[in-house]
Amino acid sequence: xxxxxxxxxxxxxxxxVGRNWLNTGGKTLDLExxxxxxxxxxFWTFCCINCLHVLDELRPLEEQYSDVLVTVGVHSPKFEHxxxxxxxxxxxxxxxxxxxxxxxxxLETWKAYTARAWxxxxxxxxxxxxxxxxxxxxxxxxxxxxxxxxIAEHExxxxxxxxxxxxxxxxxxxxxxxxxxxxxxxxxxxxxxxGNGTSDxxxxxGAAGNGAAGKGSWLVTxxxxxxxxxxxxxxxxxxxTFGSGVRGHADGPAAGDSAVAQFNxxxxxxxxxxxxxxxxxxxxxxxxxxxxxxxGLSLADGKASTLAGSGVQRLLESGPAxxxxxxxxxxxxxxxxxxxxxxxxxxxxxxxxxxxAVVVAMAGVHQIFSFDPVTGAVAIVAGNGLEGLLDGPAHxxxxxxPSGLAEDAEGNIWVADSxxxxxxxxxxxxxxxxxxxxxxxxxxFDFGFRDGEAAEARxxxxxxxxxxxxxxxxxxxxxxxxxxxxxxxxxxxxTLARGLLExxxxxxxxxxxxxxxxxxxxxxxxxxxxxFVPIPKEAQQVDEGAVQTHRPKSPVxxxxxxxxxxxxxxxxxKLDDRWGDPTQLKISSTPPELLASGGGTSVGLLRTLExxxxxxxxxxxxxxxxxxxxxxxxxxxxxxxxxxxxxYQQDWGIPVVLQGDGDTELVLDLRGMD
Length: 674
Fold this sequence. Notes:
single chain; 674 residues; 10% helix; disordered N terminus; NHL domain-containing thioredoxin family protein; Thioredoxin_domain; repeat; 6-blade_b-propeller_TolB-like
């Protein structure tokens, strides 16, 4: 029995309550209908990169145990937009979720199961009792131990019922594009039609050869079809496709119907300078997000290659938390061959003239990386891996799922930092030193739709960014369905366009294909299209308010609060104590005055906090980390050489309200229960 995940208490599972069910063919499910199955509740929200990681972690288990295991996604939204049932249905389709999903917009089921973080997993046995409660990512190995135990136990008791589950597939979305992610302009002479014909042939290719390519073309990541599509400047003419359209990872010929190359939800892409491309042997770098890799595409011969990334998600393979007690992380080059370096959900890429490298928004670990196409060197540019909004020197800064990048005329890099609903900037000096600054945004749980002074302006989960001809910055404000503008000169925010369906990227079009004035090109993901949007002479001023994520507040008493984060290494792993205590807590608060003492970063998973009686409520930001390694111990009790190591991490934002009869203890589960 795996002591890691099994709870010894017999706790009856609460009923599943929400607004609606998806992927059930219109049927409403309850626990009685699921009796006899092992039920895995996955509390998620579709903005959350960690939740998307868990979806992929669970796929092999769902396939292997399809006759006994029923996964139920409980969608408990963080952002206002995520409570929209139409947006949720699109997300379920976009991420190819093949299990029932409960729409829980009021967090009723979330509260019933005392979930405190996205993602949270709860396992219910065939008799309807909770047997496991897990926070964060990386629990597939523990579940792979627990599920066979439950199968054996309940087959012996006669309480396990084998057979098909309640999943019913929805009607698929059709069209050339399916949830496109990002777009890239290919100038005349750089597109596939510039070579000896790597298009998909037919009339479209003929049209391109007769002058359409003279205007250039657009390369779009057709994310939902796991491929790239080259479009003419009308956004309708298909000039070529790259990738077989089958989810996976494979290099080789990528062009047209004979493609064997495979991608897995590709996102950002960048065209290398011609001299760099000539040395590297490929033209385009692609953020292949779910493969956790950077890929290369040669437009001359239509071949795809893998440039960096082992395919193993970073943090699930890493050693101990590389952060010192002042929360300063490691920045600089990562050793080893680029194909041996672990990446995590690269989401966008841009060429940096100052760094002479591709800059990568590494959404899965809340950091900014770089990749040198000539040498293959991979480096961490900014971010210490902690999730949140903190400016300063690159190695101390916090990001939260950076998802969009753009370079300005001075060589600075603008960042759409999605989970903090923020616009950030990497200010790069002539020596290559990076400092992180914030233009818009307040924190992890602050968002809205408000123009005006940047300090009070609000975005909602932006995914794209570009620099306009006048030096101002346009932002794809995804969950507000808008394109916003930030003016660095006077630090104000305005709205350029709205009424869009989850715009995921925005680019300036200088081709004058639709008139004499430059236009914006917007990737409208949930409408499965790329469109032109004019840059208005007079921008709108919108104020629909600032919002905070509303979650249940925990009553706590002023004064000492004893914090315990419980963690037990999975069966077959041992805490990695080769560099000292392999566990760590990072604690801060909003407002900062809430914590009289006990904040900061230090080793260990136990700490006493002192809460100020002068602050009535706030949020405790808690990050817990623990490192463990595989394999049996050697005779002297040491971890064997070359053991695979894993970093477990969870970030909590715990809303608290101070009252005299509140709790004096706070217990969180990173891994394991009593």
